Fold:
Amino acid sequence: MQLPTLPPSLLPALLHVMRPLVRLMLRKGVTYTYFADLLKEVFVDVAEREFRLDDKPPSDSRISLLTGVHRKDVKRLRAREADSDSGLPQAVSFGAHLVSVWLNNTPFCSKPGQPLPLARLASNGGECSFDGLVAKVSKDIRARVVLDEWLRLGVVRIDDQDCVHLEAMAFIPQRGFDEKAAYFRHNLHDHACAAVHNLTEGGEPLFERSVHYDSLSPAAIEQLRNAVSVEGMQVLIGLNQLAGQLEERDAPPPDARQRITIGVYFYTEPTPPAESTPKPASSS
Structure:
C-alpha cells in the first residue's frame, strides 16, 4: 500500500497547534511518556473506526501499518472498551439547557437575551422563580441542588431580596475544573474537526474564519476584548434562539438527528519584536 505524500506544511502546523496543549499537560503533571501511551489508543481507535475497507473492520496488522503502533499494542488496545461518548456530561448539558430557557423563554426573561432576576422559591415567585425554571426543564431534579452547584461554580448569585441573578449569558462556570474541562473537550474537538474537514474533504467547506492583527496597543486590545464579549455574545444568543426554534418546528426522526457547535473566541499575546512592524489587517 502506497501512503500519500506528506504535505511539507503539515508537521510544522501540527507542532504549533500542540504547543498550548503541551503547556496544559505540563501544568497539570501529564508527562510525555504518559501522553504518548494515551495517543496510541487514539491512533488505534481512529484507524479502526474511520479507515475501513469495504466497511469491514481492519486487521491488527493493517492498523499497525497505518498508525505505526506495534501490533501487540494494537491487539491489547482493541480489546479495551473504547470511550465513545463525545458529548457533554449530563450535568453540563442540563446546565446549558437551563440557561438557554432562562435567556429565551417567558416568564424568565424580559425579552430574548435579557434574563430576569428570579425569586429563589416558588412560594414567592410562582412560575417566575428559580424553582419554576428548574421544574420547566426537569421534574426529577430539585432546584436547591442546582442552585447550590451553580453558586459553587459562579454561574449565579443571590441578592439581599433572595432573588437569583444569572451571572453569565451562557453556562460558563467561573469555578470548577471538571466543568471547564468538559467545555474544553467539546469546543476544541469540534473546532479541530471543522478545520480538519476543510483540509481533507472536498465540497463546500465548513465555516471557520478569524480576524488577526499584530500591532495593537493594550488599550485597543481591551476595547476589542469588550466588543467581542458583547457583540459576540449577541451573535451566539441569536443563533441559539434560531436553533431552538428550528428544533421545535422541524424535529427530525431519531435516526436523522445531527448536532452542531458554533463558537466565537478571542485570544491575545505579545507580538514578537521581529514582527512588530505594522501590517494590514488579515483574516482567514
